[in-house]
Write a structure and sequence with these properties.
This protein is α+β, with helices and mostly antiparallel strands. Helices cover 45% and strands 13% of the residues.
Length: 639
């Protein structure tokens, strides 16, 4: 009977094309009400207990249809779900507790957020949330929460909801009770302002609430360092200049995760030197340039300084071309303005000098000292590519070009003012010879990569092979890449292992130390049983950065295909952003990512299975040897 039901439920789910996260597939409401133990057993079930739960989008999700088709199984489901007795690993068990209380919490949202909710409705919602807190307070659950941040912070989330309900019911004493508990848990920058917007005036006017909110305001002010986020000025006073470099020093000292990768760096001594340097500046532009130089000493691509918006045209204006370090030369690999083509710039041109300085000397003096990079290959991308021609929009560049025919030409190029720029599409799909599908994914900054992949999915399913091009992907969020990979694997893929600094003040009082804490990592699950099964090639290069490297590493671990090209940039992690005096910002890498076995990724990169780099002749002839190798590899496996 149980085996038949499992097959039946799975067939229904697959028939509906259901792809969703585990928390979204619960047993019907009727069973939740009548059989609370069955509900708990369902939520704490092992992964294989009933049917395979498929993660992914809900774009084909028709819950009403599915629930109606499940209705005929209502009598049998409780018998099934309460019979499971497997013992999953702690991480899986922690997430099942998390899913249980999350579903209880989400069930109450439409109740207490309803403007027409009755006092009885609100009391019922409070009781349900209190029950969830009781569950989280069980000793075995609290122990699991110590190693799982998702489960740990569910206490905060649920009490935050209870705070809203108590406020809606006009109970200031209960509001104070919740606020006090939450304050001892965590207060984030901006929380105080949000509470002032959310709480009704009748509650805000209560003296006890005002005293508690004053305590929140004090902690939020510390978290945000508001007094240091001063506005832009042409030059900053000395105290603000010292404050800015001190904030960077302090944030890195407390949160930066790669000091051990820079054994030659004495960060405290660098700070003392930077104080003298910034005090010698006489403009905010020069001040921020020195802050860039200071942070560059960390040698990390996810630790940077960003000047205020008022100075963006001073630092970042550059002509619409792309350059690359190839065979010891700076080669133009893309020209995106007809105006520049008319001047003589073309793909394959070599830049020999800039403003009458040889390229190497120009880069050494004006570019390299201000670039933060984790690897030599990423540093080359930055100093010979992104930053090479960047600078004040009001100042033109004199370029000495060696043309493909060997002739020498000198041209003057403006950094800004182009109205005919045509940048290449970030997401390009085309079908190659032999039914091979090609898709370039140049960014994971938003959902467009997924949209491009989804649009190409019908053709990909029929393709003889698939080439995914990440060579120009500068990253963004890891999720789009993991999501795409979930379409291509038939077994769970393990992503990066992650750590962050643990700054336990009690432990520090006993002995000053640098401590690391592992973060919870969940495998990337296949989305469906009919995932693409053909040969796959992933193209990478030194511009493959951050979240794109996360995908490349997970792809390599999955052994689902082959990586062709060059080693990736070698930098990923979670940057911690913060404001600086004068209107700028900085970020410090606060998460350390490695290969699942602990081998370093940052400072190394993801190496290709087949290494191929374009040479100058390839660029000048318009050949793409990396693409050619990818097509050959697929043909060898399909012909």
């Amino acid at each position: 009977m149980v085996g038949w039901l499992r097959k039946g439920l799975k067939a229904i789910i697959l028939d509906q094309g259901l792809n969703l996260f585990p928390a979204r597939l619960g047993i019907p409401r009727a069973i939740q009400v009548r059989f609370p133990l069955a509900r708990a057993a369902w939520m704490l079930r092992p992964r294989a207990a009933c049917c395979r739960v498929l993660r992914g989008s809900c774009r084909q999700f028709e819950m009403n249809k599915i629930l109606s088709r499940l209705a005929s199984y209502l009598v049998m489901i409780p018998l099934v779900v309460i019979s499971f007795s497997a013992h999953p690993k702690d991480e899986g068990l922690a997430m099942r507790h998390y899913q249980l209380v999350t579903e209880i919490r989400e069930d109450q949202w439409p109740v207490w957020q309803d403007e027409d909710a009755t006092p009885e409705d609100l009391e019922s919602a409070l009781a349900q949330l209190a029950g969830a807190l009781d569950h989280l307070a069980r000793p075995e659950v609290e122990e699991l929460a110590l190693g799982n941040s998702y489960l740990h912070y569910r206490v905060y989330n649920i009490r935050r909801d209870m705070l809203q309900i108590e406020a809606k019911m006009g109970r200031p004493e209960r509001v104070v009770e919740q606020l006090r508990y939450l304050r001892h848990f965590v207060v984030a920058a901006g929380d105080h302002a949000r509470l002032l917007e959310e709480l009704p005036k009748s509650v805000l006017d209560h003296p006890d609430v005002q005293r508690e909110l004053a305590a929140w305001r004090a902690l939020a002010r510390v978290a945000a360092a508001e007094s240091l986020a001063t506005p832009y000025a042409e030059d900053l006073p000395a105290n603000e200049k010292i404050a800015g470099v001190s904030r960077i020093w302090a944030m890195a000292r407390e949160y930066f995760v790669h000091f051990d990768a820079r054994p030659e760096l004495d960060w405290d001594q660098a700070y003392l030197e930077a104080i003298e340097t910034v005090l010698a500046t006489d403009s905010t532009a020069d001040y921020y340039r020195e802050l860039m130089r200071f942070v560059a000493r960390l040698g990390d691509s996810h630790s940077n300084v960003y000047p205020p918006e008022e100075l963006s045209e001073h630092f970042y204006a550059r002509p619409p071309i792309r350059t690359q370090w190839i065979e010891g030369r700076v080669i133009v690999t893309g020209v995106f303005s007809d105006r520049l083509r008319a001047l003589g710039l073309s793909v394959g041109s070599e830049i020999e000098s800039i403003d009458d300085e040889a390229v190497a000397a120009y880069v050494r003096q004006h570019v390299a000292p201000f670039q933060s990079a984790s690897t030599e290959q990423d540093l080359k991308v930055r100093k010979y590519g992104y930053a090479l021609l960047a600078g004040p929009s009001t100042r033109s560049l004199t370029l000495s070009l060696r043309q493909p025919d060997g002739s020498l030409q000198t041209i003057e190029v403006e950094r800004s003012g182009y109205t005919d720029v045509e940048w290449p599409e970030s997401f390009q799909r085309r079908q190659l010879d032999g039914g091979i599908e090609y898709l370039s994914l140049d960014s994971f900054a938003d959902g467009r990569a997924l949209e491009a992949f989804d649009a190409a999915w019908p053709e990909i399913q029929q393709a003889s092979g698939l080439i995914l091009d990440l060579r120009n992907n500068g990253g963004g969020s890891s999720w789009p890449g993991y999501r795409i990979l979930a379409y291509l694997i038939d077994e769970p893929a393990v992503p990066a292992a992650s750590w962050t600094r643990r700054n336990d003040s009690v432990r520090q009082a006993a002995s000053a130390s640098v401590q690391f804490h592992p973060l919870s990592v969940r495998p990337i699950e296949p989305i469906a049983e009919d995932n693409y099964a053909g040969p796959i090639v992933l193209l990478t290069g030194p511009r493959t950065f951050s979240a794109a490297e996360d995908m490349a590493m997970a792809f390599a671990v999955s052994q689902r295909g082959v990586i062709i090209g060059q080693t990736t940039a070698g930098s990923t992690g979670q940057p911690l952003m913060f404001h600086l005096p004068g209107g700028g910002m900085a970020r410090i890498c606060a998460k350390r990512d490695t290969w699942p076995d602990g081998s370093p990724l940052v400072g190394v990169g993801v190496a290709p299975d087949i290494e191929i780099a374009p040479n100058v002749s390839d660029i000048q002839a318009g050949r793409d040897p990396v693409m050619e190798a990818a097509m050959d590899w697929i043909r060898e496996r399909t012909d």
